[in-house]
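Dock zinc ion; give full complex structure.
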Amino acid sequence: MNERVERVTHRGLDERVVVLRAGDEVDAVFVRTERFCVLVDTLSTPDLCRQALDLVAAERAGRPLLVVNSHMDWDHFWGNAALPPGTVIIAQTAALDRFHQPETAATLRDMAAREARFAGIELVAPTIGFAGAMRLEGGDLTLHLLHTPGHTPDHLAVWIPEIRTCLGVDAVEDPIPEVWSTALGDLRALCVSLQRIADLKAAILLPAHGGTSDPGLAARNLAYFDALAARVAGAGIEDSNDESDLAVRPGLRFEDLVPACRAMTAEMRTFYRGVHARNLAATVAAHRAAGGRPSV
Ligand SMILES: [Zn+2]
């Protein structure tokens, strides 16, 4: 893991938006408005978050800093402890609930046992929770915080209409996003969130993983889930109870559904095969429960 954060820009990205990339792990995004600055996500460690804050220190020029936690997955908020005391941290109320679940601390314990960089991290909770949508009125730019569940129940995306830029975070992902569970509602929620993001007709769409700004990503992710549902419907699984081998069955494999993938290391390919296997399990569960693909 590359433990350095770098500033990244994309063709057409407004200069008030800075992507802060921690290697191939995750991106945070900094947005400068007339009234305040907003940091969307704090990366996976306080050290990485401190680096990110240093990289944008000049642009802040005395403006207050607001922080948004997109959701309570470790790679997006474990850097919170690096924020100055009293920093406002905004998230969905579902994220506040999730923060206090035992799994949150258990994940840190597990990962700290495996990787020294996570040892001793203090988990810092969001300080302001909201349900549904919130607007941050920066003057020149407005940040619409949109509840976009499905990847996780507490997930939010950010839409900045003045510059037609959407921070899709983990609701969209290149090559594919991951559904929260095999519960029917989660797959449906993810597809609804993807459709909602696609309907924004953004000029720039930034996922937190994948390094792209392609506004067609949400539609591509949706097409993947549609194709997966169609393949599952045609796979003749109705009489079989053995789903253990479905992800390696020709026609249902990751490579069959995502043929034109970005260049990936062997490690990333293994990771996304796992993501695909979990999406497939959710699609099979939806097929069995509803007799077809989840309706958007
Ligand atoms: Zn993530």
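Observed: The first strand starts at residue 5 and ends at 8.
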